[in-house]
Amino acid sequence: MNPTIRITKEFKFEMAHALKGYDGPCRNIHGHSYELLVTISGHPISDINSPKLGMVMDFGDLKKIVRETIVDVLDHALVLNSSMPKDLIEKLSENFEKIILLDYQPTSELMIADFANRIVEKLPPDVNLRYMLLRETVTSYAEWFAEDNA
Questions:
Q1: Tell me: the pLDDT tens digits for 15-47?
Q2: Percentages of the chain per state (helix, strand, coil), in multiples of 5
Q3: I want to staple 27 with a disulfide (CB 3.0 to 4.6 A). Which of 22, 102, 117, 150 is the partner?
Q4: CA 58 from centre of chain
């Protein structure tokens, strides 16, 4: 028996952003308490000599990947599109220390796609990213499915 199993780890982080050129209130700097769910799949390790026997992947290893590539980078940061006016970015940088500039609009949709790319690069070869959910508010979230991005 060597079943394919999915495991999920949840993460929470605080982040502010502004959407350049947006026609609603989100064009202003505002923040969210984000929740990120990351689901991977694989076969549980069957090597009886492995300390990870029975695991698809150690939850701690998955946590380390996601924290290092996403959560620790973005937590309590102001995230902006790098095409924002340079003088605005300079002024903000004089007053705030954690400003992250992205080469895309920092929407949940584009961020979750970026997150997927970051995570896939770090996963072991026998483990697959299957699903992610990025919750921006209590009632709003973006989802990423592997089958939609094959």
A1: 999 999 999 999 999 999 999 999 999 999 999
A2: 30, 35, 35
A3: 22
A4: 19
The amino acid at residue 48 is I
Number of H helices, E strands in the chain: 4, 6
Cα–Cα distance between 119 and 111 in angstroms, integer? 12
- Residue 130 maps to which CATH number? 3.30.479.10
What is the Cα Rg of the chain in Å?
A: 18
DSSP-based three-state secondary structure for 24: coil
Domain count, the chain: 1
Question: CB neighbours of 131 closer than 8 A, spacing ≥ 6?
Answer: 6, 8, 37, 38, 39, 143, 144, 145, 146
The residues that are catalytic are: 26, 76, 136
Q: Identify residue 141 by its one-letter amino acid code.
A: Y
How many angstroms separate the CA atoms of 94 and 117, rounded? Answer: 31
Q: What are phi and psi of 146, to 5 degrees?
A: -60, -40
Q: What's the CA gap between 149 and 142, in Å, rounded?
A: 14
Task: For residue range 109-120, list pLDDT tens digits in order.
Answer: 999 999 999 999
